[in-house]
Structures are given as C-alpha cells and as structure tokens.
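A common beginner's mistake is to predict each chain separately and then try to dock the pieces by hand. The better habit, illustrated here, is to supply every component at once so that their relative placement is modeled jointly.
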Amino acid sequence: MLFNSLHYLIFLPIVVSLYYLLPHRWRWLLLLVASYYFYMCWKPEYAILLLISTGVAYTAGLGISRTEDPRTKKALLWCCITILLGILFTFKYFNFANATLRSLFTELRIPVNIPYSNLLLPIGISFYTFQKISYVVDVFHGKAKPEKHFGIFAVYSCFFPQLVAGPIERVEHLLHQFYERHEFTYDKAVSGLWLILWGFFKKVAVADRLSVLVKAVYSDPHSYSGLPMLVATFFFAFQIYCDFSGYTDIAIGSARLIGFDLMANFRQPYFSRSVAEFWRRWHISLSTWFRDYVYIPLGGNRVVKWRWYYNIFITFFVSGLWHGANWTFAAWGAMHGCYMVLDSMFGPARDRLRSRLKMAAAQTCFDWLNVGLTFSLVTLAWIPFRASNFSDMWYVFTHLFSGAKNWLDLGAVSIQFRGMGLHLDELICAVTFIGLVIIYDWLDSRRGVWERLQAQPLVLRWAVCYSVLALVLFFTPYNQAQNFIYFQF
Amino acid sequence: MQFRQFFKKGLLFASPLLLWVLAVVVVDPFDYFDLSHVFPEQAKIENAATLNTLVFNMLKEKHTPCENLIIGDSRAEALPLEYIEQITGRPYFRLSANALKMNESIDLFYFANRIKPVKRAVFTINFNEFNEYAYADRVTSVEAMIHNPFIYLFDRNVAQAGYYVAKASLTGKKSFSSIPPMSQDAYWDYIVTVRAREHYERYRYPDDLLKRMQEMTEFAKKQGTEVTFIIVPHHADFQRQVRDFGLLDDYIRFKRDMSNLGVRVIDYDYLNAMTTDKSNFRDPLHYNSEIAKLIANEVFCGPLATGRLLNATWASQCTNYLF
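With all components supplied together, the output reads:
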C-alpha cells in the first residue's frame, strides 16, 4: 500500500479510530494485523519472508539472552545475521553478484552460466533486515533486553508507518512504546496531521513534479545538452529529498496519530556546512546504523590514520551498495567516502580558518559559502545515484556544461527543454515549490514550523493549512504519481 | 473529550472543501457529471471548450460516443464538420485539441475505441509534429481524470474554466480572446522563424512513434476500422524550413514510411498552387476555411485533385515537388 494512495487515506483513519476504541491489551494485535495487511497489499506471499526474519531475530534474541557461554552467544548472533543477510542477498543482490561474476569470468575467458533469478525484490527488505540486525546486536552487547512477547516483537518488526522505508528504529526507542498506553491528545493528532500534509506536499506536489523532467533526461541523457542535464541533476537533488523526507514526514505523522514517536530522519540536510554534517542530517537512522554497526566495529577513528580513512571509505562504500544492487550506487557511496576522507583531512583546517574570522558577518558568509559547496558536492554525487549505468553517468559528468555559451539564448534553451513533458508553467511551479521547501526548512532549522504556527491566531493557522492543502490538491500531477524512491531499497 | 473536539474542528475545517466540491458540481464547466444545467451550454463551449479542447472533447466522446472520428490538432479542428456530415450522410465527431501531438492522436484513437469501436478515423498529420521531441502526454492525464472524479474536482484547469464559465454567464461576455497579440504579417514571420525553429532545430526521427502508428493501423485493420491520414498543407514558406534546417532526408523518409502504413494517406504538403498562395492560409501552418472545404470534399467524397494519394510512386517522386 502506498502512502500516496486513496487506499491509505481510508486505511489510516480506520486504524486510528479502532486503535483508540480498543482496550490497551488488544492494541498490539490491531497494529500487527494492520501492519501485515499494509504489507500484504503489495504482494501477500512476501509477508512470509517478513515473518521468517521476525522469527529468526526473535529466537536469536531469546537464545542469546538465555545462554551464558560467550561462544554460543556469538554463534547465535552470527547465525542470525547470516540468515537475515542471506535472505537479503538472495532477493536483492543475487542477480547483481551473478552479473558481476559473469562479466569477470568472461574477461578471463572462463564460461560461467549461473541462471538469473526471477524473484521480485520485496519492498522494504533492506530496512526491516537492518532493524532486526540492530536488535540482535544490541541484545548481544547487552544494550537491549530481549523481547519475550512474540506478538509485540512482531509488531515492532513490521510497524506499518516505518516498515517499508524507515526510519530504521532502534529497539530502545520504539519497542517500549508498544507497552505504553497512548491516550488521544488533540495537539499530538493535529501536529501529526500537519506533518502528513507537509509530507504529502513534498511528495506529490514537489517530488512527483520534478520527477517528470529528471526521468526524461536521465532515461536518455545522450539526447540532451548541458543545461537540461544540470537542471535535471539539481531537480533530482530536491526530488529525492522531497520524496524521502516526505515519506518520513507521513510516517512520523501517521505514527503520531496513534501516539507513537518515531525518530527524526532528516534535519534540513541541504543547509549542511560540510559533507560530514550532511550525513548527520540526511537519513539519520541509516547513517547512525552504519556508524554503530559497521564503522565502530571496524575500529572507528581509534586506529592509525590510514586505517581510519579506510574505515570511513568502506562504510560509505557499503552504504552505497545497501541502496541498490548496482555499481552506480557503489560509485555514489565511494564518492561520499572520498568526500568524508577529505573532510577528515581538511575539516580541522576549515574550522580553524572560520574561527580566525573575527566578524560575525564574515563567519556567516563563510558558512553560506560552505553550504553552497556542500550542496554542490552532494548534488554532483547524485549523478551516479540516478544514472542507469556507468556509461550514462560518465556522459552526464562530462557534458554537464556543454553548450554553456548558448545558455543566455532563451530560444535555444526553450528548444532544449522541448518534449520533456514539463511545460513552462510546470517548470515555474517546480522552482517555486523548491523555494517553498527551502524556506520551510530554513524556518524549521531556527524554530520548528509547527511550534511557530501554534503561536499564531487560529485564522492564520488555518489559512496556512488551507494553502498547503490547496497546493496538494490542485498542484498534484495525478498522472505522474510515482512510487517512493526508497521503496526499491 | 479531546477526540470530540478534534472531530468537531475537523468537520469545520473540511466544510470549505465540501463547498468547493458543490460549486464544481454545480458549474461543471466540462459537463463531467452532467447533473447540473444552471450555467448555459453556450458559455461552456465558448469558455471551457476554448480553454481546454481536449478535456471538453474527450468528455463529449465519453458521454455521446461517435463511431466516425476526425482526430488531430488545430488543423483537424478547422475541417468543416457539418459540411462533412452533409456530404457523407454520416455523423462525425472531431476528437481534436490544440497543439495535439501525434502520439496523443494515437492515444485518442485507442481511448475512443475503449468506449465504442471506431468505424472510420481520419487523422490530420504533418512532418512538423513527426519528431521524437514533439511529445506530450495529456490524453492519459485526461483519461485518468475521466475515471477519477476526485481529480476533476481538484484540477486547476477545471477551476479556471469554471471561473470563466461563471463569469461569462453572469456578465454575458466571453472571458478571453484567442487572437494573437500581433499583426497578421508579424505573426506570419513569427511562425516561419520562431515556431519553425522550435519544431525543427532539435529533431530526431521518431522510430517509436512510427512503430506505434504501424501497430495502430494493424489494430484498425483487424477491427475493420477505415483509417485515413491527411498530410495537411503548410504554406511554402514553412515547407522551406524543412530544407533550411537540413531535414530533407527525414522528410522524404517520413513520406515513404507513411506510404508503407497500408492505409489511405493523402498528401497536401508539397509545392503546388495552393501551398504557394498566401491567401489560402491564416498563417503558415493553418489553412483557411475554403481550403478546409476543398480538403473535406476531396478526402470524404473524392476524386483527388490537389491531394495526392501517398503511395510508393508518389513517395519517390515527391522530391520533385518540394520547396
């Protein structure tokens, strides 16, 4: 079931109403049924996978806590991780590994003919696998207590608002909330609805609109000159942000309607002053996951320098592959790995330079300069993320500024944008909406927009809500409805 | 207690939306629901249909399907419908829209067939739209709207058309004019220079579109639909642009491919007495009503005098009659 579907708009109020009507002791069951129904709307048989991985993590968690022998504990942990990653590999990476091996062996003139798998990628598999791995690892390290109630653990593993695209919750943050008695509170419900509304705006009015031009250019970049590619890349930076943060807002808002708090996943990432800061603000639940379960176990920064840089690079490289079974994603991860290594090398010098600037205005200018630079680097890295293959990626990289001498010739520019399916008025809309998202984020970074709104008179509050609602209703390109990008991961 | 407060405020908040829905159902500029007749049909035709011909025509086809269709852009709209009905003795419907692209014409054909099998379909086409970059996707969005009233209720075009219809009905004046804001000569030059550049500067032969046309003609043959393509005339000033933009080979290939479609294709777009006379055209792309009548006579009753039946012979000879 998609958040941006009529189905969900009917499903959510029913679940919320039933949740508050039911006695507390049955609410977990309602959420479990609702979550499995939510997941099974896509492909019912894949719910078995979800159930198997839940059973494996639950059994491993209990087993680890009940045994005193460290070797058995370790064996149980690795057994569980192997099964969970094995499922992930089979469904997500098998064909990718097969194709890579085939091309490698073809180069070596060794015939290899392993058949390709026809299995569909189960949506959200990377998310729920990682959530379960974090659970067993935390239980192993004694950071979390194992959950004894299978039903509660099952609903923690498949809680519908965050099941298919996160946030990847940690056991200490989410699990206990299923035991808490949530009463309906007006303020919480209204703030949840506001988040859902803003999430919808970002997803349907902004991301889906931008996707038209991005799709046209990136499906055949060789047909376009520099400017459309540059615009498409810039648009993609906002498409993916609005798509994913829009999803997260709807997820957090939906959970809030039934009294749950999910962790924040985005904090105005495009206002970051360095790539390191960007990763503290973008997909926070995943970056902290990689920090805690990959980077730190590798040794983190408590090692010699070259090894530290290696740890950083490898963490981002693996994070790239987590996103998709394609070398373009690995290239994206590698780019960010390089950025982060460079940041670790030169970041201190940058900070020293900033502290030497005495005037506040000069520091602000320096910060904005860094924001611009970080945004440019991150946007450049989106090219391999969006490109279908290495050839397209290379073409875009090498032709971003081709034909730059004609960029002031409006006639030539309009011809370049012909046939992309996004007319001038739509283009103006898209740019205006990007501006709105930037302003919203800027306001939100200083003081929460919702808190600001609450301090305003009712008329103004409602006027703002009606305006956003009108933008959602009247500016949704209905025939361009897209899946959330992160569903495929 | 808090839930009751939430419910009450929610209802209050939703009331303007309900009013909006009611207003759209009452004005109904494109006769989507066909329930309310508070606003006169003439106001809807003059305003809503002018603002968005595609929505208006597709909805009309949906409500009163016709098995004989004329499909195309503004050149199809120029063909005299009543006259055609009179000379053929059959009802026809113009399933057309301004600036309709050829891929959209095909979409319209299939759309009409989904409602009722089409017996006769006449398409107006020309090389200026036979370009991979001459692409739009409006038919699918209108079809989505036809199937989902929610989209109609909250569509910006519908809101704008509703406003025009209401305004025109209350004031008795047409809400907007479609006359270009320049003299006829200036407009002629504008088409020959600016518009020609838009059409031809960025060109790629549309293999996918050709394939879709072949599939469509195959489908039509199987269904027993009589298909005719009219390659509508451009004034020689615009025809010359094909050569000036270096597209002569593609143009010849276009005619050859059209002749291979296996249906009746009538070519008016070559150098002849009609296309060299400025008085036959409103602008370089649009013929006037006399020419429209001439084309209607030749295509629907025959015999062909100016129009040439596009076959392999004519396709190979047509280079002698170019520019």
